[in-house]
Amino acid sequence: MVIEKKSMLPPLDDAVAHSQRFITIVCLAAFLPGLGCYFCVAYSFFFQLDTVLNFTHAFPPVSYSIGIWKPQRYIWLLILFVHLPPRIIFIVLYRRLFYTFSHEAKAFEITLKFYALTLWLEPSGLILVSVIDIKSHFIIHAIAYAMWIIFFNFNMLLNVILTHFSGFKQTHPKVVKVWWFKLLMLISGIAISISTPFTYFYFLKHCNVVAYTLFSVAECIMVGYNAVFYALSYYEFPSTRITVGVRSKASLTSRTFSTTSTVQSSTGSNSSYEKGTNHIPRST
């Protein structure tokens, strides 16, 4: 008995897509992690004040509210993994934006490639600092925190540079205002970020509560900076909708066949149809 082998047909005959307004992406990718982190810190003060006071008699670092104390840890992990897919959309958008405005200068190309790398490294640091808590692996947690804050500052710096030198800054007066605001955030954000290792090591050496509080407050400020910086993308991508979907090769084939057939019937010639069918993708 001979069994005839047939190619398996794709289960989806047409595109399956979901379109979302960009403001929704901004809320999930920018505001959600910032507000979620502040919620965890506020929860610690409102419902676990004894734990906070027994711990340090000062403003505790964010790492304890999102990584040690419960239920804040579970709330934060849920927020983290909800915000990651929309955050990837930010990475794709900014890469495509600056590639659109790119020019032949070698330095610009290198900067753009490094920017694409730092866009991935920043959320990677955030994942590590959230999953690996400060008690179980302090050194790894500290490295992950440094990774997050360093690459966030690099992202601010490279975004400002690329916006200016790509020509995107000149496309609209609103983009110019956003650029200046980002520049101010960059300058102040770098200063705040640089202060954190100094205040922390000063605390370790002198057990100074004020230094520890300044370190913790700087952490919280940078969380807000991160949320606001990426939320500004709303003004850089006006009237933008994000469509995520799946389209089978069979759907593409049928659409191409339909298009070429229409061309044939309207021109009365077989040449265009034959040329089109040579490029029709086949299901395998």
How would you explain this protein's 3D organization?
Strands 1-2 form a two-stranded antiparallel sheet. It has 284 residues and is mainly α. Helices cover 74% and strands 4% of the residues. The C terminus is likely disordered. It contains 11 helices and 2 strands. Helix 1 packs antiparallel against helix 4, helix 4 packs antiparallel against helix 5 and helix 5 packs antiparallel against helix 6. It is globular and about 55 Å long. The chain has one domain. Keywords: Membrane, Transmembrane, Transmembrane helix. This is CWH43-like N-terminal domain-containing protein. Pfam families: Frag1. One of its GO terms (cellular component) is endoplasmic reticulum membrane. InterPro entries: CWH43_N, PGAP2.
Secondary-structure blueprint of this entry?
Elements: E1 16-21, H1 22-47, H2 49-55, H3 62-67, H4 72-100, H5 106-131, H6 138-166, H7 173-206, H8 209-231, H9 233-236, E2 241-246, H10 249-267, H11 271-277
Antiparallel strand pairs: 1-2
Helix pairs in contact: 1-2, 1-4, 1-8, 4-5, 5-6, 6-7, 7-8, 10-11
Q: Main traits of this protein?
A:
single chain, globular, mainly alpha, 11 helices, disordered C terminus
In short:
The protein has 284 residues and is mainly α.
Number of strands: 2
Q: Which residue ranges are poorly predicted, with pLDDT under 50 across at least 5 consecutive positions?
A: 254-284
Q: Structural class of the helix and strand makeup?
A: mainly alpha
Number of helices: 11
Task: Report the helical percentage.
Answer: over 70%
Q: What portion of residues belong to β-strands?
A: under 5%
Shape: globular
* Average pLDDT number: 81
Q: Helices and strands, in N-to-C order?
A: EHHHHHHHHHEHH
Q: How does the major sheet shape up? A: 2 strands, antiparallel
Number of domains: 1
Radius of gyration: 25 Å
From the N-terminal CA to the C-terminal CA, the straight-line distance is 24 Å
Domain CWH43-like N-terminal: 24-239
Protein name: CWH43-like N-terminal domain-containing protein
InterPro entries: CWH43_N, PGAP2
Organism: Diploscapter pachys
